[in-house]
């Protein structure tokens, strides 16, 4: 990786993102629109119907069938449909905008929405190149509206309790983290997202599009940011499937954090379901023992019994959505703020090849 560029960008994060300060008037509905009503956008949009004080007034998508579906989900509020997101952003009566388009469009759309004075909930990743991440940070820094990023794992009750215990020192001083995201199959080659997902220039590759969640949890647990990284990956199983594919189907990475913690991460799409060790996990090794973060358990060194660190729900619905509206109403800075999301995006996106694109 290009370490100098990584450090330069990380330093730029330090002063970033002023706290949001444009609180919405109490008691008024927050008039909301959405750009991108596909798989993720459709899910977020359906969840918003259940929130009090939210009026769903506009939706935008290039695909008519997806747009129609979104408009019917929110028929209670009689939303207007758009195919050009700039037309949606021109509306002065829209307070908040969700962005759930392919990854390469996030920065351009989030900047346009912030500059139009909207509160913004933008899906992860924060950007797919160090240059675009820095560009959005600059705009977010001078913006008075809320910018929350779709790193919803930061809101999961069980993860929050477990990682708080790690920070309190349950495992002693953290030495090493081992994490993975292993699947038994590839994503659907003919599915609705196949038009961008397998194109690394659009998705940022699977490490950016998917593993940004996992590597953000590692950053959070380690309570630091990586300083150096090295890795290898490619396409081993799904060669040219779908045709023209440029995204990897497997890679392995090593990181060294500023505080000295070492981390190893792998993601594969060819882990047979019958082979033990499928799925996602995060093991945090410390001087007193190790924490299985997904299992919320601490395993002491020696023969001691495992200790349950949290009995809360792992993700607990969509608490990040209510939190977004709470920030709009009380002017607070989101948990999944632009700084956290930028460090996560730089953790995954700062590869020399991508930095030069
Ligand atoms: N936070 C999470 O857990 C999570 C989960 C899944 C996806 N995502 C993220 O959400 C984003 C969307 O992923 P998806 O799975 O919903 O993909 P998708 O392909 O199902 O949906 C994207 C939608 O954006 C629309 N679109 C593309 N260009 C547009 C434009 N210029 N104007 C308006 N609409 C446009 C497409 O027509 C499509 O309907 C990605 O960034 C992905 O990483 C986040």
Give the tags.
14 strands; eight-stranded mixed beta sheet; 357 residues; Rossmann fold; 22% strand; binds nicotinamide-adenine-dinucleotide; Dihydrodipicolinate Reductase, domain 2; alpha/beta; six-stranded parallel beta sheet
CATH superfamily of the largest domain: NAD(P)-binding Rossmann-like Domain
Question: pLDDT under 50 segments (min length 5)?
Answer: 6-21, 352-357
Average pLDDT for all residues: 91
Helix content: 25-40%
Distance between the termini: 14 Å
Q: Assess the beta-strand content as a share of residues.
A: 15-25%
The CATH topology of the largest domain turns out to be Rossmann fold
- Specify the structural class: alpha/beta
What about the largest sheet?
8 strands, mixed
Please report the number of helical segments: 14
Strand order of the largest sheet: 8-9-10-7-11-12-13-14
State the total count of DSSP E strands: 14
Question: What does this 3D model show about the protein?
Answer:
- The chain is of the alpha/beta class and 357 residues long.
- It folds into two domains: 3-153 and 317-337, Rossmann fold, CATH 3.40.50.720; 157-308, Dihydrodipicolinate Reductase, domain 2 (2-Layer Sandwich).
- 34% of the residues lie in helices and 22% in strands.
- It contains 14 helices and 14 strands.
- The chain is globular, with a radius of gyration of 20 Å.
- Bound molecules: nicotinamide-adenine-dinucleotide.
- Nicotinamide-adenine-dinucleotide (NAD) binds at residues 35-41, 60-63, 66, 85, 100-103, 105, 123-124, 150, 152, 192-193, 209.
